[in-house]
Amino acid sequence: MSEAISVEEHAEAMTAYLAEGVAVGEALGNRGPVEYNTKGRLTTEILDKYWEHGFYIFEGVVGHDEIAKLRTEIGDMIDRAPTGPESTVDQYGNEAFGLDFARPAYTFIKPLSDPWGGTELLGGRHPHRMLEPTPDQDAPEYTPYLMHGMCQLLDSGLELYGHPTLLAIAASINGEDFVPFNDAIFVKLPGLGGAVAWHQDGVTHWDNPDWDIGIHGFNFQVQLYPASPRNCLWVIPGTHHHGRADIRAMIAANGGSERLPGAVPLTCNPGDVTIANRQVLHGSFANTSEDARISVTFGFHRYRSIIGARAGLSQAKEAIYYDDERIWSRAAVIQVAIDARAQAYPDDARFDYAPFADRVEDYRFTPETFESVIRDYNLKDLAI
Q: What pTM does this model have?
């Protein structure tokens, strides 16, 4: 059970731990601008650092104008959110945003709570509940935690999904035939944002005889605001090398404290992008800071990790195995997003997505492809 602790006590208890984590992270050398080799893929030096530590921070990837557009559209989505999980109206009494899609656009939590920790949700991969500070008396009953479906709800979301630099990174790590995982916008509002208990993302391939450190793919997080040690994602470098971690034992060995040794904060400026291996141990603490963190999160897999794999995480109940039809119907979103971005940013380079090289004309961004490819695309996510 989480102990009772105030916002102020939580912030004070974290101070020394934050400073230690920053110092550890600064020594790793896995932060900087994107650099390419002659084939337009990440340099060996960057890839070596990523595979060594399980994460990398790319600086200044998304430009100021694009960040401003994302802030505006995502801010409007937060402003027009339902007032809670059962509501259909926003805080102004108007019909809430995003109600006309098959999957709900919002996940809500109680302020400063940890909704997954210590539960069997998502395959039980969050075995320890983080501290849940007591929110201020004027806090709302519910706060947005995740927002789903950025490619169908936000012009800026679909355009970001086709970003040539991000897709080149995906090809560098997962191969030219990389395929999607899912996407979600993490919302950690000041004094309200919830915790994400320590976990590893992957659930499917731990016992696979062909297991390796990249078999569960990776996630991007695009940062819209400064991400500080008090509100950002934390990782424990190198933990992706060692298979499934015994998180309960790690916390018990740490005297029951969730402030695990060796962890580092992924501090960022707006426009920076982090990548984290889905096997690296990571999590985030309740946001008792005065700053918001909005992270646009989306991941990619190797094709060979997905083909024939059984659906996992929230899709486990589907009891299906991913075949080519399912994979490429979801991957078509990438190709449509590339064209949507080309229309919005005609002077930018256009990424060439190898699996759709001979089908580009069939996947232009049009009202027709929005209905056939983009609408309710997140019902086809590829989760392992």
A: 0.94
